[in-house]
Predict the 3D structure of the following.
Amino acid sequence: MGLYESGENYLETILILEKRNGVVRSIDIATELDYSKASISRAMGILKKANYITMEKNGDIVLTKKGREKANQIYERHQIITDYLIRALGVDRDIATEDACKIEHVISEDSFQKIKDWVEKNS
């Protein structure tokens, strides 16, 4: 099953919340993204069925190995593209962050690798 942009955003959000809070629950995701609890519940069901997350009996949401790999990939893309837009092009941080969130889902691997190489070379 392929993962759509919204699913990638959920995985990235789970990763970020996990880093920030240690544990993640549906309400944390709903609050972070300003989505309804019903939307989060549906999305978590889809991610669970696709083996990206598990849901513990106490309500904790845990990334599986597959989910963690995908979340880390999306998070890295977001960070590197944001950095590139700011440093190479002079884009305002808020705009760069917002644009990177859109670009990270559609950019080719080749283009991303070139941006990553530029950022690493110019660090």
